[in-house]
Amino acid sequence: MLSLLWSPLFFLSCQSSKETIPDPVYIDAGVPEVGAAEAFLDFPIGSPMGGYTARCGYLGGAGKPDNRKSAYILAFNPSAGIQTTPTVKVLWIDNGDQSFVLIKVDVIYSYDQLIEDVEDQLEAATGLELDGRVMITASHTHNAPANFSDQIPFYLGGDRYNEESFRRFVKTISETALQAYDTREEASIGVSIHKDWDPQDDVYVDRRPENNDLELWPDQVDGKDPYLWILRADTLSGNPIAVFFNFGIHGTALGDDNTLISTDATGAIENVLQSRFDPSVVVAHFQGPAGDISPVAKSERGHPFARLEALGEYAVDTIYDAWDVTPTASTPIEIESVGRSIPQSQTEVRVTRNGTVDWYYNPYERGYEPDNIIFDDDGNVLSPLDEFNTEYGAVFCGYDEPLISTGTIGATVPPYDGCMQIELISYVINGVFQLDGFVEGGEAPLPLPSSLRAGVGASRIGPMRIRTADGQELDDDLLMGFFPGEASSLFADQYRRRAKSELGFEHVMTIAYAQDHEGYLLVPEDWFLGGYESNINLWGPLQGEYLMESTLTMIDEHLTTTQLEPQDPDGLWHPTSYPQRELPMLAPDETPTAGIAVTEMPEYVYNYFDMDLELSPPSIVRRGQDIVQFMWEGGDPGVDSPKIILERFREDAWEEVTLDSGHVVDETRPDIVLTLTPSPLYPLSALQSNFYSLFWQAVPSLGDRMGLPEGVYRFHIYGKTYAGGAQTWPWPTEEYELTSPEFSVVPGDLSVSLDENQLTVSFDGPEKGFRLLSLDGASNGANPPVDPTVTLLHSDGTETILDIEPVLVQGSLSYSIEDVDDVISISVADLYGNTGIWESD
Predict the structure, then answer these.
(1) Rounded Cα gap, residues 403 and 156, in angstroms
(2) In the chain, what's the furthest Cα-to-Cα distance?
(3) What does the alpha-carbon distance between residue 598 and residue 80 come to, in Å, rounded to a whole number?
(4) Dihedrals φ, ψ of 612, to 5°?
(5) CA atoms within 13 A on the CB side of 537
(6) Are 326 and 234 in contact (CB under 8 A)?
């Protein structure tokens, strides 16, 4: 043995192996280059919407438009139209050395295989190494297509996986990211942080009362996470390229009974903020810790769509002002990003808090009886946490009553007493989502593959110009953590403090609903309090902070030096492996009558607004108070998502109506609502006609909501039909085009009444009104006219102009007039020419 160790051959072999060790690679700083792009997601109307399990026909049946069938659903109810169209928005930052790709998608959650496929597409097109450098975060709207994820437990949140839907998403996201890549230019970038920016809860509010009395740290966040972050990118000449803003807000302004696809709360805010910028500027919200935060949708605004518009109006000034004070710089920056898939199981999930605790679960033991004691006499968490005794994970913890008493994990102390074994839940999934014939073996494999790993990510960019919450400007690193689920406010608070105390990062942003999805992410002390947020994650009270600690370890190993470490040299952090799926072979119907206006009311038409249905517009339309309808035959929804543009006749030509910012008024905005009725509704195998209906209330997108310009208008519609010849997506198409009959918009009517000496004036929205008319009124009720002129006609023929200030009373303007004995009529005209009159008997 000794002779072998000292032999020349052994020495040479050791020397040779040392020479194969690659030299370290270091990150280079460079001038930032930024590109941004946006597009609308490609999806069919009829896709199932994610976020509410109650939309599953077997588990509640909420949001069922009628008995229609769709090629894109299995157990969930199909969507029936579009209120606002989901988007993809991309920010690509490069410094000549490394790339960072931030992608926001209007869907319920992210999905790790989506990351993998988009990375592959981008690498193939650019030749860049992008592993761990692409971050996808979801807006968490509960009203967007959701069957793009093959995570079996989350079939309960958005229906069974559909390969066509997934590939459509990959294509749209990848193409949009490549547009951003192609538009890169040298840029000036910066960040600002704003604390307590919504003090009156006009935009978002804490929805978790269970932890109101929980005190973990002397300076902890109480209630909702208070931070608004702005990420600003400008050209070197100072023109905006992109405005990305981050705070936590749930996408639940529309409830589970909604049947129309919508970007919900975040989209409503984006929509209004976009109007402050040129159409070339990409404006995007990317999610923060929204797990315990709800949007504020004030009920007095009337229709839920109007409430969404109001939400955007309440948020826009503060966010715009925050952008306006965000400093930027074009000095060289370093960029480094990393991603991992963290192993998860009963034995791997553990929390140490940098050595100050040691919390873990016992290995699973069938029939084990826990002590049902969570804390010691001093209030400290007892470890091991023997109450969480599960082989494959558990859900529905935190509920007062278990779903099925025989399927619990055996603990009797809250919140463990409601925990259901995944094995039992898998039987429900097997049946509801018909896994026999869909997955190998005919039933959900145990453990569930997606539950064994969770994707996380992190990026360090800097030094970049940062404006702190106290108004100080400095140059420092920005650390972004991307977490696979619904991070809570206390989770984000703990992540910030730990990243600072353990790793030295001062400016730490939490991006939730990113890279993957694991349900709610809470710190253990918060999870123990139960409630709704404790019921979805599979690996119990320690999972959230375990993933946080794993992310902090990853950051420490990759982002705290200037060395560029390999992403996963030992293959420890590989993502979940999902089965290869075949594309569905249910081709769209050919529709030769597509593009023809409907002239006779069909026997059945889906009536979302529950109003009198019309085939075409009336010739005269009162601004704000009349709702225009138009119906036509279109293509199969597998290929047709009609483009609808509002046009106005001006100077002998039809022109597209635009906002002052240049954005075109079309069906992607809240102005125009689109619904679809297939005929017959079922069976799906029947040759179906497709009746599309648009609804437009004569209200501008923004601004002077009771002052739409008078004139002649129409709708211009562009659609697609299936051309035939394919067995799987992508489907060949042909285009169609038509216009609606024209109609004239005229001033609206003011309601004027006199009761003794009290004059009341209002602009009344229609009973079925769905647009915001005023922040002080209601879509379907009274609204205060803008700058009205009140003229009194006296019995002697003279006129006087009323010169007193009105009082706002329940959406109306109220005037107290001293002497009305000789007044025979009162006429009122507002700033826009809307008029009304009161006359004595």
Answers:
(1) 15
(2) 129
(3) 19
(4) -65, 125
(5) 37
(6) no
**In whole angstroms, what is the distance from residue 387 CA to residue 365 CA?**
11
| pLDDT surpassing 90 at residue 444 | yes
DSSP helix/strand/coil, 360 = strand
Give the pLDDT confidence of 774-796 residue by residue, as tens digits.
Answer: 999 999 999 999 999 999 999 99
pLDDT, average across residues 87-103 = 98
Q: CA 211 from chain center: how many Å?
A: 25
Q: Which two tokens stand for residue 292?
A: 């315990």
d(CA 299, CA 779): 11
Indicate the SS3 state at residue 324: helix
For residue 286 the two structure tokens come to 């990317």
SS3 of 192-231: EEEECCCCCCCCEEECCHHHCCCCCCCCCCCCCCCEEEEE
DSSP string of 72-117?
T-SSBPBP-EESS--EEEEEEEE-SS-EEEEEEESSS---HHHHHH
Name every residue whose Cβ is closer than 8 Å to that of residue 735 and which is 6 or more positions away in sequence: 718, 719, 720, 721
Residue 632 clears pLDDT 70, i.e. is over it: yes
pTM (two decimals): 0.95
- Is residue 47 within 8 Å of 145, Cβ to Cβ? yes
- d(C-alpha 677, C-alpha 667), whole Å: 17
Handedness of CA 196, 202, 204, 206 (dihedral sign): positive
CA–CA distance, 12 with 16 (Å, rounded to integer): 6
User: Comparing C-alpha atoms, which of 155, 153, 119 is closest to residue 136?
Assistant: 119
- Say which range, 216-225, 294-303, 554-563, has the weakest mean pLDDT: 294-303
What distances in angstroms separate CA 340 from CA 103, 306, 434, 481, one per listed residue?
A: 18, 42, 32, 12
Please name the residue that has the structure tokens 């099925």. Answer: 404
Question: SS3 sequence, 423-487?
Answer: HHHHHHHHHHCCCECCEHHHCCCCCCHHHHEEEEEEEEEEEEEEECCCCCEEEEEEEEEECCCEE
Spatial separation of the C-alpha atoms in residues 201 and 225, rounded to whole Å: 12
Residue 347: name the closest of 392, 397, 398, 382 by CA: 392
Q: Using an 8 Å Cβ cutoff, are 763 and 624 in contact?
A: yes
Angle of helix 163-182 versus helix 112-126 axis, rounded to 10: 40
**CB-hemisphere CA count at 13 Å for 111?**
29
* Helix (H), strand (E) at residue 644: strand 643-650
Buried b / exposed e over 811-828, threshold 16 CB at 10 Å, is: bbbbbebeebeebebbbb
Burial of 379 from C-beta contacts in 10 A (0-12 / 13-18 / 19+):
exposed
Rounded Cα gap, residues 351 and 369, in angstroms:
23
